[in-house]
Amino acid sequence: MDDVRRALDDAATIGAGHVLLSSGPPGALSYEEAEVRFREILGTAIPEAADRGVPFAFEPNHALRVDLGYVHTLHDGLDLADDIDSPWFTVIAEINNCWIERRLYENIATRSGRIGLVQINDFAPGTLSTPHRVPLGEGMIPLPRILGALAESGYGGYYEIEVVGPTVDQLGGEETTRRCIDYLAQLGI
């Protein structure tokens, strides 16, 4: 909790919109047991966030990253946010992870108010590594459909371009950023 308090203090000092939060690894706990423990932590952490006026943005992690957390889908993250029902606890929709989830468009349409940050990313067909992404619009994720659904839902939170990996290293950060911004401008975002 000391680390959480320091992060919240720093975020409040600089006027950050959110503090990124992961649940931490489940260890030997079942999903349900890990959730009970995480809710206990949130019972202390959420009032700290409210005191500082900085909400949490909770990130469901890709299933390959059990070292970071036990929640792996946007749907499960939104269920948790619904149960907690606090404006100080929002969920991150990382498109690279959630774009093929069941009920994605239903969740966007009905629960976008629980989403505090959308991480926009794309990857090429045949990619075998989660952090191997490509500039937006150069991969296979249906970004116009997903971003359109978010706009139609009234989502008013933050967007973040999250593109990392060997292709980005090869192109360089400046070129990758230019391509991503150009693509989003073509979509009207």
Structure in words:
- This protein is an alpha/beta fold.
- The protein has 8 helices and 5 strands.
- Helices cover 48% and strands 12% of the residues.
- A 5-stranded parallel β-sheet has the order 1-2-3-4-5.
- Helix 1 packs across helix 2 and helix 5 packs parallel to helix 6.
- The N and C termini lie far apart (37 Å).
CATH superfamily: Divalent-metal-dependent TIM barrel enzymes
Mean pLDDT: 95
CATH architecture: Alpha-Beta Barrel
Structural domain tally: 1
CATH topology: TIM Barrel
Given the helix and strand composition, which structural class is it? alpha/beta
State the helix count. Answer: 8
Compute the CA-based radius of gyration: 17 Å
What is the string of SSEs from the N terminus onward? Answer: HEHEHEHHEHEHH
What would the principal axes of the Cα set say about the shape? globular
* Major sheet attributes: 5 strands, parallel
Q: Identify low-pLDDT runs.
A: none
CATH class label? Alpha Beta
Order of strands side by side in the largest beta sheet?
Answer: 1-2-3-4-5
Beta strand %:
5-15%
Helix residue percentage: 40-55%
The beta-strand count equals 5
N-to-C CA distance: 37 Å
